[in-house]
Specification:
Helices cover 10% and strands 38% of the residues. By secondary structure, the protein is mostly beta strands.
């Protein structure tokens, strides 16, 4: 079964979008030190896929920063697989701790509407204040 098969697509909670996003990643696990720049190559309402020069241990908690936009959130590693290509040679899947439109797409796919951010928007009246949606921090 390939990642584009109907069965694989049905497994996903939210559609992946091919999008290159530069991230600054920091490990929040003291036993697994890492900080560095990477690129997400696919994003969704529940996570992303990035390419790195090294594998990450499953479950490692990471802080993701989109430095150019001053957004940050946390995620954990779902898996790391070698790509078999020249560096960067690890494909790493991450799951956002709090699902939502962390990527700030202006028109996210319809299946992203079930994420916690979208639910809060539909349940809460606009108060004129900026909320910390989907666990992101603006610094």
């Amino acid at each position: 079964m390939t990642a584009t098969s109907p069965a694989a697509q049905e497994r996903r909670r939210s559609q992946r979008i091919p999008l290159s996003v530069p991230l600054f990643v920091t490990s929040l696990d003291p036993a697994y030190a890492f900080t560095g720049n990477v690129h997400a190559t696919q994003v969704s309402g529940h996570g992303c896929v990035l390419h790195a020069f090294r594998p990450f241990k499953r479950g490692t908690k990471l802080r993701l920063d989109i430095v150019s936009r001053h957004y940050s959130t946390t995620a954990h590693v779902v898996h790391s697989h070698p790509t078999g290509t020249p560096a960067p040679n690890w494909k790493v899947a991450l799951e956002l701790e709090k699902p939502g439109n962390f990527w700030r797409l202006s028109a996210p796919p319809p299946d992203w509407l079930g994420t916690s951010e979208q639910q809060r928007k539909s349940e809460s009246p606009r108060s004129g204040s900026v909320s910390d949606s989907a666990g992101e921090n603006q610094s």
